């Protein structure tokens, strides 16, 4: 296994934060909706080879739901790996708290909170880029 050398370019924190915000607003919320599709008790799993004809839509829905749950678990693991920055990313993007509420809850000033959210976004983006193949990190030209 060969690891690529770390990228030495300077991270554009503002654009990276915008990318992460957009990702949570679109992709993450999509996976949340898919993972919360109600289970259907009459699932019929067939051992027949999958064809292009959607003969078993319930099976497809079950697989989609399971995949979405796996993605959410993966994202949770990435967030848990952020250490001291975890509460900032969780509060802002998972719990959808406003900046003043995060400041009050985590007992940080406005500029400290904004800096930590920016750094949390950069760490999250870089980790997702390395592990999931996303392109969330933006670099300065």
UniProtKB/TrEMBL annotation:
Protein name per UniProt: ArpU family transcriptional regulator
Source organism (scientific name): Ligilactobacillus murinus
